[in-house]
Design brief:
With 323 residues, this protein is an alpha+beta fold. It contains ten helices and 15 strands. It is elongated and about 75 Å long.
């Protein structure tokens, strides 16, 4: 309780200083209000929001010289530059929560200078003629953004992960490129080190942008996927420590009317008005067969750990890319 009161007093004093600056040095009322807002956001550890709020003030040296603002800004900012694979690409960023805000141009790769950015999650946009525009989410500091000064906790343990671009039309529009990673995975009950000790060098790959929908899965059903052994080859069907043949296993992959399909379907079709909802009620085996039907593969746990570098990645399948 005392700590909370102390924080409130400190913030109150800083905000009072901002308004005192306005009265004593002729500061603008709107500027004083923004400074107070930035200070309050920093106190709540909302650094991305504080950065966005402060942007209109950054070209005013009087505001930057204000001790209360300078102290808050020092907590907000960590200069950074994204790590990008392709030269000659235009790179932009904005804070993760500022979805509709304007992109801030960083420069053209290779980028020499560090730019002011919040210690927070960032949205990165990369454009280059002949390549599909790349959108990424990176942490600052983090594996795809060099910081100044560098974060010793990261540099000592990891390699940087450059953000890749995909040549136009090289992969389907509904897939995205995930950078090569070699991070150690940490999962309760599987790895003993909280920082991770299951490490795999994973080449760059393409992954679905969205979940597989009922409509998409019905293509597999209508094409006779449940009856085509090609999609079920090399799968070992296990049930209560017993190995099943495909003929035994396929009898279990039925809908509520006993037809082939997800458990919640009827007569091998999805409920009305649910065509664009993610498919559910299927086993891992059915998912693997569907992925093969699409010419793709199910992700491993290492693939699942990699896609969070992109904000909309929720997937069922992936496609390996050449190194």
């Amino acid at each position: 309780m005392l700590a909370i009161i102390a924080v409130i007093l400190v913030v109150g004093a800083a905000i009072a200083g901002a308004y005192r600056w306005r009265s004593e040095q002729g500061g603008d009322a709107k500027q004083a209000k923004i400074v107070a807002q930035v200070i309050a956001l920093v106190a709540k550890d909302q650094l991305g929001e504080a950065f966005t709020a402060a942007r209109p003030l950054l070209n005013d040296e009087r505001v930057r010289a204000l001790p209360e603002f300078a102290a808050a800004w020092k907590q907000v900012v960590l200069p950074m530059r994204p790590v990008v694979t392709e030269p000659g690409a235009a790179v932009y960023f904005k804070t993760y929560d500022d979805i509709d805000g304007e992109w801030i141009q960083i420069g053209t790769t290779p980028i020499a200078k560090f730019v002011e950015a919040p210690r927070a999650a960032l949205r990165i946009k990369i454009e280059k003629p002949g390549y599909r525009t790349g959108y990424f989410v990176v942490a600052n500091p983090g594996p795809s953004a060099e910081s100044d000064p560098p974060d010793p906790g990261f540099v000592d343990r990891f390699e940087y992960v450059p953000l890749p671009l995909s040549v136009e039309n090289a992969i389907p529009d509904d897939m995205i490129v995930v950078p090569r990673t070699n991070f150690a995975i940490s999962l309760p009950g599987w790895t003993s080190d909280l920082r991770g000790n299951n490490k795999l060098d994973l080449p760059s790959f393409a992954i679905d942008r969205e979940e597989t929908t009922n409509r998409q899965f019905k293509d597999f059903v209508d094409a006779g996927g449940y009856n085509n052994p090609t999609y079920w080859e090399e799968l070992e069907f296990r049930e209560k420590r017993r190995t099943l043949s495909w003929e035994e296993a396929r009898k279990r992959f039925i809908d509520s009317t006993g037809r082939p399909g997800p458990a919640g379907w009827q007569l091998s079709t999805f409920p009305s008005d649910e065509e664009d909802l993610p498919v559910g009620g299927i086993s891992w085996y059915e998912a693997a067969a569907y992925a093969k039907f699409r010419g793709k593969e199910l992700p491993t746990v290492h693939h699942w750990y990699a896609p969070p570098s992109h904000p909309t990645t929720r997937t069922l399948m992936y496609r390996p890319r050449s190194r």
